[in-house]
Write a structure and sequence with these properties.
alpha/beta; Trna Endonuclease, Chain: A, domain 1; 5-stranded mixed beta sheet; globular; plasmid
Length: about 350
């Protein structure tokens, strides 16, 4: 199997449009917070594997490359899409119609994928590119196998284009190749959840983390280590399990929990993000539930800095993110931006 880097190089060389590799994302948003010291945002930002970004149109193509499909890849694509849009919005807010915000090469480099430069020398002007109207999200994956069908269906259900290398050529996977509908033999939902729920989570640390955050759902049905996708793909022997599923009034909370060492907090958050939204997609489809009633949630300790920045920016406009009803209402607008709980890492 080729390396991830080799997989990506092969992909971009076969595409007709030009790509920039390892494009920093979240850098501008990080500078706009109090979580880190000045100048530390660069090393703490993420990077997009490949980005096609025309100068004067509000369209971009964001590519994450993987040797095989992963939930982390799904989380990276969705999180980087959110950060990319917000970075552009902040850069455009800084653009006051003059070149004063980006006078030096160092200042330009921080935001260069969001800027367009015109002229030379003293006549040079630097301005923000247009607002981003559309980001096409792409997973470029070198190897896929039959057990990947549930995960790949979550990618496409959430709007991600999947491109796969076959006999040296990259092709877009047709969703109907691996998509599925709920079986007519799907059992009654609540009784099935009760039968398949476990007494505790497989990880004692994650069980403790759940207990510390579960007060808001006391008195509501809670199910643990619940298989997801098995009614859509009964022949795939899927091993996907949602840590916690909670029924609260008209909502279903799909909860992914991570107890992370500091050194892996960022990658763990990206994976948990992908699992929460991926499992939410599978759960909604296999039980034929309205999408606006399914709420993906990530609980992490310590919460990765990227997770804290995302949460505060996405849900904290009125400084009330601890009021879970605020996040629930916002998260119900789609499956791609989960609620996030936990105390974020700090740097500096």
């Amino acid at each position: 199997m080729p390396s991830e880097q080799a997989c990506c190089e092969d992909y971009v060389t076969q595409r007709p449009e030009a790509y920039k590799r390892e494009v920093v994302v979240g850098n501008t948003l990080l500078r706009d917070t109090d979580h880190i010291t000045d100048g530390a945002e660069g090393p703490l930002a993420g990077s997009i594997d490949a980005l096609h970004t025309p100068s004067d149109v509000g369209y971009e193509r964001l590519v994450e490359c993987k040797t095989s499909p992963t939930f982390r890849g799904l989380g990276q694509i969705l999180l980087y899409t959110y950060f990319r849009r917000r970075d552009r919005e902040l850069v455009r807010q800084q653009d006051n119609g003059q070149k004063l915000n980006w006078e030096t090469t160092k200042e330009i480099k921080k935001d260069e994928s969001h800027l367009k430069q015109e002229g030379q020398g003293t006549g040079r002007t630097v301005h923000a590119k247009p607002a981003i109207d559309e980001i096409q999200q792409v997973l470029a994956v070198c190897e896929i196998d039959s057990p990947d069908a549930p995960l790949l269906s979550a990618y496409t259900d959430l709007g991600v284009t999947v491109e796969h290398r076959t006999n040296g050529t990259w092709r877009t996977l047709n969703a109907d190749v691996f998509d599925a509908e709920p079986s007519s033999a799907t059992p009654p939902m609540m009784s099935w959840l009760e039968r398949n729920s476990r007494d505790s989570l497989d990880s004692s640390l994650e069980e403790q983390l759940w207990e510390a955050n579960s007060g808001v759902v006391n008195g509501h049905p809670v199910f643990k280590e619940i298989p997801v996708g098995s009614h859509l793909y009964p022949d795939k022997q899927t091993s996907h399990r949602a840590d916690v599923v909670v029924s609260v009034d008209n909502y279903w909370f799909i909860v992914e929990i991570k107890a992370s060492p500091n050194g892996t907090a960022t990658s763990d958050f990206q994976r948990a993000y992908g699992q929460a939204v991926g499992y939410a997609s599978l759960f909604a489809r296999e039980w034929d539930l309205p999408r606006n009633q399914i709420i993906p949630i990530v609980i992490q300790a310590p919460l990765a800095l990227a997770g804290g920045i995302y949460r505060d920016d996405r849900y904290d406009d009125d400084k009330r993110y601890n009021e879970n009803s605020v996040m629930t209402w916002a998260a119900s607008s789609g499956l791609t931006e989960p609620m996030v709980l936990g105390n974020a890492q700090t740097f500096g």
